[in-house]
Amino acid sequence: IPVIAAGGIGDGRGVAAALMLGAMGVQLGTRFLVALECNISRAYKEKILQAKDTSTMVTGRPTGHPVRVIKNQLAREFQRLEKINALPEEYERLGKGSLSRAVREGDMEKGSIMAGQIAGLVGKEQSCEEMIKEIFYEAEKIITEKMSLLKEK
Which residues make beta-bridge pairs with 126? Predict the structure, then answer.
């Protein structure tokens, strides 16, 4: 069964690790949010580019639909609902339209800024072609170096 690794992969190191662990391929998400071809709001892209390794959090666990997002006012409100054991309807009310607010309107406080933990690794806006070439060049270099070290032993 082919295994496709996903989650936490944003550069050649992650790709190399996944392939060395036996994955047949990888799926990247957050990295491509800042692709030149991606038409999300400029503010959303800037939030990803400014993110640090501690910039994200998971919301929505009690609903059975957890989502990792960049911390903001909306995320803190979801966190508050979790602490008071709110009803599912309250989560629905709060979240309704929130992704659109971030993606289309650029609302970085009340919008849902979905992004993986690797957001802190993303440092520049590039074309998809540039990203893919850079990521796989780095992965190939790492794998080649590791294979050379193994042959020397």
Answer: 35
Secondary structure class of 41 (helix, strand, coil): coil
Of 136, 149, 44, 26, nearest in space to 98 by CA: 44
- Does the pLDDT at position 29 exceed 80? yes
DSSP 52: -
- Asked if residue 153 has pLDDT above 80, the reply is no
Q: What pTM does this model have?
A: 0.90
Please list the helix, strand and coil fractions of the chain in percent, rounded to the nearest 5, in that order.
55, 10, 35
Question: What pLDDT does residue 150 have?
Answer: 82
Q: For the purposes of burial, counting CB atoms within 10 Å of the CB of 92, is it exposed (0-12), middle (13-18) or buried (19 or more)?
A: exposed
Of 22, 19, 20, 48, whose CA–CA distance to 33 is shortest? 48
**Residue 34 is encoded by which pair of tokens?**
């800042």
Give strand ranges (E) for the chain. 4-6, 25-27, 56-59, 67-70
